Amino acid sequence: MRDGVPEAGYTHGMKVLLRYFLRGCLALLPVATTIYIAFLIIAWVDRIVPLGIPGLGFVSALAVITLVGFLTSNVIGRAAVDAIERFLTRLPLAKLVYTSIRDLISAFVGEKKRFDRPVAVTMVPGSNIRVLGFVTRETMASLGMGNAVAVYFPQSYNFAGYLALVPRDQLEPLAISATDLMTFVVSGGISGLGIEPAPVSRSPRGKSGGTLMGVGPGKE
Question: What does the CA dihedral 27, 30, 34, 35 come to, rounded to 10 degrees?
Fold first, then answer.
């Protein structure tokens, strides 16, 4: 007995409360984290554009960026951007920073996207193991590797990755969108591709059954 409550009932009650707590964390943490990150971004922009009203600096920044995008869509605006770009590319350090940021942003959202060709790569010929990535360059002839292509491999749960030069015959094009593949890789295979993870089957006794991945019939 524990304070007049049977030990078994007390333990069961604590397990139920813990299960509800974990479910609450699972429901609230993604929402709270997203809101918190959005708040940090808005607060950071507000500090850059201090207008005295919370959020106004962020809205103003969005308006200015949209206006610049509109102005650069015509000939005069495009000419002004080209002139600034030529000036920055003449400065050694500024050229490195500017071109790196420009090419990275253009690779994701520009008119000449680079991360739009998802492939599965056989890293070891003859192996059934594949590594997922994106073709970023069709040929590496400039390095004397005419049969190689540049493939970028993003990392799971990390805004990083690595680049590999892979023989063309080890590539397998994938008939999926680049967004789905990126989501699938970055989430460690949990999200993306329109497929939800298979639930873990449970036996009547409440023990996990099935295979290592949580699918298949359970065994007593």
Answer: 30
* pLDDT (0 to 100) of residue 201: 45
The span from the CA of 104 to the CA of 114, in Å, is: 9
Q: Where are the domains of the chain?
A: 7-109, 118-186
Question: Across-strand partners of 119?
Answer: 133, 173
Q: Which H/E stretch holds residue 165?
A: strand 161-167
Alpha-carbon distance of 32 to 29, in angstroms, equals: 5
Q: What is the pLDDT of residues 177-188, one digit of tens each?
A: 877 787 778 777
The confidence score (pLDDT) of residue 7 equals 65
Strands 171-173 and 161-167: unpaired
Question: How far apart, in whole angstroms, are the C-alpha atoms of residue 32 and residue 147?
Answer: 48
Tell whether pTM > 0.70: no
CA distances from 117 to 70, 84, 129, 158 (A): 29, 31, 19, 20
Residues 47-72: tens digit of each pLDDT: 887 777 778 888 888 888 888 888 87
d(CA 191, CA 214): 16
- In this structure, what is the dihedral angle of CA atoms 211, 214, 217, 220, given to the nearest 10 degrees? 80
The torsion angles phi and psi of 87, rounded to 5 degrees, stand at -65, -45
